[in-house]
TrEMBL record:
Membrane-protein topology: Multi-pass membrane protein
Protein name: Sugar phosphate transporter domain-containing protein
Subcellular location: Membrane
Keyword Nucleotide-binding listed: no
Main location: membrane
Coiled-coil intervals: none
SUPFAM superfamilies, A to Z: Multidrug resistance efflux transporter EmrE
Residues annotated as transmembrane: 41-61, 73-96, 129-148, 217-241, 253-274, 280-299
Amino acid sequence: MEAEKKSSSVSDIGAWAMNVISSVGIIMANKQLMSANGYAFGFATTLTGFHFAVTALVGMISNATGLSASKHVPLWELLWFSIVANLSITGMNFSLMLNSVGFYQISKLSMIPVVCVLEWLLHSKQYTFQVKMSVVVVVIGVGVCTVTDVKVNAKGFLCACVAILSTSLQQISIGSLQKKYSVGSFELLSKTAPIQACSLLVLGPIIDYYLSGKLILSYNFTSGAFLFILLSCSLAVFCNVSQYLCIGRFSAVSFQVLGHMKTVCVLTLGWLLFDSELTFKNIMGMLVAIAGMVIYSWAVEVEKTNPKITPHAKNSMTEEEIRLLKDGIEFEVTSPVKDVELGGSKQ
């Protein structure tokens, strides 16, 4: 039992490390690919379509060679999930375009409480006081080190709301679909990636033209740009797989909270590699955020080792059902035995 627990902990750490490394790596690669000082590839939605196309190809090869098995998931669930996931991607892109960086960061931070509320509404999930407080500390820390100017307009606010809701639903759905159909993370990704790839490759160039005013067909694909697109797609496979692994192993809330470690890593690497400004305010915010993540990890472990039955938690039998069962047993023992044939009772 101890060996299994240790093996599970190592797997959890491995999945999380893969997600952090691949996510930070893809951000650095995309920064070089899309920045004006780099290759100026300003087609973010189409690039995401490329990501899912390569992921779908890897999934098809894996299934064909027998490295992974394919389990049945209803098509309508896959389509619904793909629509939500694509809304998340396009909503984030439009939110970043229409809003200030400060409001965009705030909208990303608001996903944590939104995920908490949705899990409470959809799955009746309860959170301890320690978990709630650690989430608040993380939000404050990341807010201090990332949020600058805050400007908002009606269109930007609407896009941000769509992005927040769809992203939260997507992350909750990953875990629920895996549990509902007993499907692995890579198997689920292999089924949804082709749908997302097809839709994004069709709609992506249109959305990108609206965002940037440029057609992807007019872009000059140099060897350097092609190399970074290939690197970005390769990292995206690891990023997508690790995201499904993490949410399947942990929860959408844990993924959001611990995911802000990537924000800290991105800020630090941006300062080291791209001469980005790193102020005292940024450093203090990072320290607060890291402290919040440590507290959150501790609170989750405490919650696992000391589970409490809550009025809303549905176990195999609730306290009320146990009480009624006991009352029923007592009633059968203490009540007079009825004579069915005579319709009377025997004392």
